[in-house]
Amino acid sequence: MTDQRRTVRDGYDDLAETYLEARNEDPEWVLTELTNRLEPGARVLDAGCGQGVPVTTALSTDFDTVGLDFSRAQLRLARTNVPGVALLQGDMTALPFQTESFDAIAAFYSLIHVPIPEHEDVIAEFARVLTPGGYLLCTVGGDAWEGSNTDWLDSGVEMQWSFPSIEETYETLEAVGFDIVDEFVVDDELGSEYPFVLARVDAD
Known about the structure:
It is a single chain. With about 200 residues, this protein is an alpha/beta fold. It has a single domain, classed as Vaccinia Virus protein VP39 (Rossmann fold). The chain contains 7 helices and 9 strands; from the N terminus they run αααβαβαββαβββαββ. The strands form 2 sheets. Strands 3-2-1-4-5-9-8 form a 7-stranded mixed β-sheet, sandwiched between helices.
């Protein structure tokens, strides 16, 4: 495990309650760009589900939802917040699911914590577990950036982020079999602005 991955995992463990308090109870409007394209009961993966609020909670209303996260502390909170939803600890670079297991994936604020050299591995795993024609809605970076905050959310806990430019992300998505459907910019309630990409696995 790289130092960055360990810092991210341990950070989310250490500030689990703080992060829960900071997150809005309502998912960003951009989630509807995914859910409006799905049939009721579709199987959806929330990749990097955190404490289950707000994305897992919103998805589980209409869809067969599975939450996956790297942090045990986050998952403990999620088990309380979204009882009855299947929750697993796992690594996005090697998803613990069979090929073509999901109709859609929501990856809110998770890929941007992965070291840049491993982004292609994660995106390839997303493509592998999606059914042909399945959708991915994912937070990505705009300009290439790597950095950290040693006192994130005034918690005294370090958090790290890294992502290539959005053009490089598009190249990676297309290389592993995604078609780009749309792009949206979201003002995150934690004070940042991130692009989201909606992509679809080739149906052929």
